[in-house]
Amino acid sequence: MTGADGTNVLFVVLDTVRKDHLSAYGYDEPTTPTLEAFAEEAAVFEHAVAPAPWTLPVHASLFTGLYPSEHEATQEDPYLDGATTLAESLSAAGYDTACYSSNAWITPYTNLTAGFDDHDNFFQIMPSELLSGPLARIWQTMNDSDTLRGVADRMVQLGNKFHEYFASEGGGDTKTPAVIDKTMDFIDDSENFFTFINLMDAHLPYHPPEEYVEQFAPGVDSAEVCQNSKEFNCGARDIDDAEWDDIEGLYDAEIRHIDDQLDRLFTHLKETGQWDETMVVVAADHGELHGEHGLYGHEFCIYDPLVNVPCMVKHPEIEPERDDETVVELVDLYHSVLDATGVAGDGVSLDPARSLLSTEYREFAGTASNGAGAHGPRGDVGFVEYHQPVVELRQLEGKASAAGIALETDSRFYSRMGAARSPEGKYIHCTRIPDEAYRIDSDPGETEDRAGSDDELLVDLEAELSDFVDRVDADWPDEADGTDGEVLDSMDDDAKDRLKDLGYID
User: Fold this and answer.
1) How far apart are the C-alpha atoms of 483 and 466, rounded to whole Å?
2) Are 347 and 85 in contact (CB under 8 A)?
3) Cβ(312)–Cβ(44) below 8 Å
4) What's residue 377's pLDDT?
5) Domains of the chain, each with CATH number or no CATH
6) For an engineered disulfide with 280, which of 166, 205, 314, 488 has Cβ 3.0 to 4.6 Å away?
7) What residue spans carry the Acidic residues bias annotation (predicted)?
């Protein structure tokens, strides 16, 4: 069986790209001329909300229509288990499906590639051949054992560490041109396709091609600026205004490189006559902080530069316009793709109230719905979850220890967080530290904490968040200590020594 209307789908994730650094969203540097042109054909949403501030849970939500507490693919348990994915549903409906990325989290190891007929991970240290085919079944066997799963976690973390090492001197070349090449080959060989790509250039470390450095960061040596967010976040490294300018210049250069590669892909679709019949989704999974709130990277918080993400969608049934009113949750994109392809979904079923193509979009009938991916009655609220930051915390502790710094345990580093966000405001609940609340409409930088005030809008958002936590049956722990438990007990001395060398354990 084929898709009901034969609509092709190209789904592009701009990994770690913050909305306010896109010229398509009004940024004053020419970072995205391709997306500016795309915006003339697409709906451009100002209030898109990511369900989490990092890759794994966001992609799991995109692929399942579930919130992080429902699919449970988090730092504590980084595997998508027991959920039918969008790719599995579309593949069963006759679509050719492919996933191309250089993100180490999007692999058979985490099960995020389930349902994709073709997938390639261009990750420099742990390539697709290691994480797919028969070896993927070995990974799954390791995942099924609590002890071996911990070892598997460490192997992926070590892969990331080696990638960081090779890229630290500019040696990690971009994989995006290869991703785009493979995407074009795949769609040319397909009659009906669902192609998902994740483009990683804007993720730390920033080492853009030289031509883009000359345009956006002339004279900047990427090997000389701080490329490790944990060093800054733990207090081991200072960054002054001039260095932040250099870092942001490199970041902008990476974004422009992505944009130019998208131009290659979009032009190819147009020249081969496939553009008009293809739904195109372009969104970021999360953003990045460059010193705001005293933080660098995309961990330990859920402020807007991380979770209010760019989102642009082209489809004949979606009006091409800028929308600064509608709240779009990235979870909704799962339903929008199902709707566009005429597939009901073998996992979470298509919900018209979550499809951008539907006249009922974000109309939740005035009462809380039940079941997987359920939303409360208010369509103008999006929800964010940040589980225990075990992996990030381990790296942070290593950097702090090396610098002789003792981290405060009652801090955001050890906190779990959740937020309810509307176009006007945001309420953030935290463990370990006080809650925060902001009027986004008058304070978009989230600088004036109004938690505990009698602001009715913020009081209502606090209640919405509480209802959401109950609805998704979120488990809010008191502790987030990043301990490794029996995993370290089972490791031999050589493995422990290697982890010590890399800063993961003391």
Assistant:
1) 28
2) yes
3) yes
4) 81
5) 8-360+372-379 (3.40.720.10)
6) 314
7) 475-492
